[in-house]
């Protein structure tokens, strides 16, 4: 039996509080925001310029900032490793919640 058991979530609504708990460090969360906003900028630039090679930068921008936040500041493993889809969704919902004032920026 593995030392660390994987918690199973039945829905994203059930997962999201766990996701926020894994992002309790302000710097980690802010690095996620930077990465997500950078992804949107790259996507917008790529669509406007039709320089499709820029799409290769998206994973590095998004995950690079997030993973630095987790490994250096939060000192935990990114939820992406266990819950890739819910974690991806969580990044965008957390950004929306920060921009709308629902959670601390």
UniProtKB/TrEMBL annotation:
The chain crosses the membrane at residues 31-48, 54-73. Signal peptide: none annotated. Keywords: Membrane, Transmembrane, Transmembrane helix. InterPro entries: Mpo1-like. PANTHER family: DUF962 DOMAIN-CONTAINING PROTEIN, TRANSMEMBRANE PROTEIN. This is DUF962 domain-containing protein. It comes from Metapseudomonas resinovorans. The lineage of its organism: Bacteria, Pseudomonadati, Pseudomonadota, Gammaproteobacteria, Pseudomonadales.
